[in-house]
Write a structure and sequence with these properties.
Elements: E1 2-3, H1 9-23, H2 27-30, E2 58-61, H3 64-71, E3 77-81, E4 84-86, E5 90-93, E6 97-101, E7 107-109, E8 112-115, E9 125-128, E10 131-133, E11 140-142, E12 147-152, E13 155-157, E14 164-166, E15 171-176, E16 179-185, E17 188-189, E18 204-207, E19 210-216, E20 220-222, E21 227-230, E22 233-235, E23 242-245, E24 249-253, E25 256-258, E26 264-266, E27 275-279, E28 282-284, H4 312-319
Length: 325
């Protein structure tokens, strides 16, 4: 096991500032934020927001044994992933951790990260700047009532089950600036139609993500209210974009849907209908969204300033994925 001095915030943010300067896009739109926004920023459940492992030391890991060791420690850590780590199954991440890839080298190959167990919660966790590929189960599973989770600037593809699932009464989650591609079941919110313990939880923000060549679940939501889906680019999604089911409340706004025959469903497969409000989206070579009911306004919880939907193809492409923080 090896350790390194704490990495300065200036170095972590330098790459994103360069992207903004090179593209001429507004700095606020592409520069990686220093702190979580959306639901992960909301004071609740004894936390003032999401800080991950900032209170603890920084270590660098290059193998699965060290990754599992530090991710499972009962004290805060910032864990830097240097290089490709190949393993099977899931590594459990417990409270107060930041897991961050170094440059563009941090890769999780074959396995995934599970936030928390039934006895050890995965609260206050940050996952950034990592590539996830070939997962034997989920690439990232936010589960077992984990809360205050920020998943930002990752690249996720070619998994077995879900690329990023939020379930089992987890709450206050932000999923931002990620590139999801080459997969079917992309991101689920809510464990199952019969897991009614998810009611009153599952508050999730999705913003500035690229869903490219992914078939479905962007997200598929059960029970959560509100789930806020804004400023994303949906591109070539074969089955559908967003699905609101089992009385979920989903707000879909300022997104760009391109080559998506069914941008939004109310109810899907055997799941009963949810509620879905759409506004200020752009639809290019896409069908009309289904809508129903009303949804709790996210501004009840946090402030946000959406970018124009028409800017999403260039803005999101310029900012998503690894090497941008």
């Amino acid at each position: 096991m090896s350790s390194t001095p704490r990495v300065s915030r200036r170095l972590l943010l330098a790459g994103a500032a360069g992207v903004a300067a090179a593209t001429g896009l507004p700095r606020h739109a592409t520069a990686a934020p220093a702190t979580a926004d959306g639901f992960a920023s909301v004071p609740a459940l004894g936390l003032s927001g999401t800080t991950g492992g900032a209170a603890g030391p920084t270590v660098t890991v290059t193998n699965a044994t060290d990754l599992a060791h530090y991710a499972g420690r009962n004290t805060p850590y910032t864990i830097l992933v240097g290089g490709r780590i190949t393993f099977d199954d899931m590594v459990t991440v417990v409270a107060d951790k930041s897991i961050i890839g170094v440059g563009t080298s941090g890769v999780i190959d074959g396995g995934g990260l599970q936030l928390g167990s039934t006895t050890r919660p995965g609260n206050n966790v940050i996952i950034r700047n990592l590539t996830f590929v070939n997962a034997s189960d989920d690439s990232i599973s936010v589960t077992n009532a984990a809360h205050h989770v920020w998943i930002d600037h990752n690249d996720l593809s070619n998994g077995y089950d879900g690329l990023l699932d939020v379930k089992r009464a987890s709450d206050y989650v932000t999923i931002s600036w990620n590139h999801f591609h080459d997969h079917s079941k992309t991101t689920l919110v809510g464990h199952s139609d019969t897991y009614t313990a998810d009611r009153g939880h599952l508050r999730v923000t999705y913003h500035h993500n690229l869903f490219e060549g992914t078939a479905q679940r962007h997200p598929r939501v059960r029970f959560g209210d509100p789930v806020h889906v804004y400023n994303n680019h949906f591109l070539n999604n074969e089955l559908y974009g967003v699905a609101s089911t089992e009385d979920a409340g989903v707000l879909v706004e300022y997104n760009y849907f391109e080559n998506v025959a069914h941008p939004a469903y109310v109810g899907y497969d055997e799941s009963g209908p949810g509620r879905l409000v759409e506004r200020n989206n752009v639809y290019v070579n896409s069908g009309a969204p289904q809508t129903a009911g009303t949804v709790t306004e996210p501004r009840t919880y946090y402030a946000y300033s959406p970018d124009p939907a028409a800017a999403m193809p260039s803005l999101v492409r310029a900012g998503v994925g690894v090497g941008r923080i």
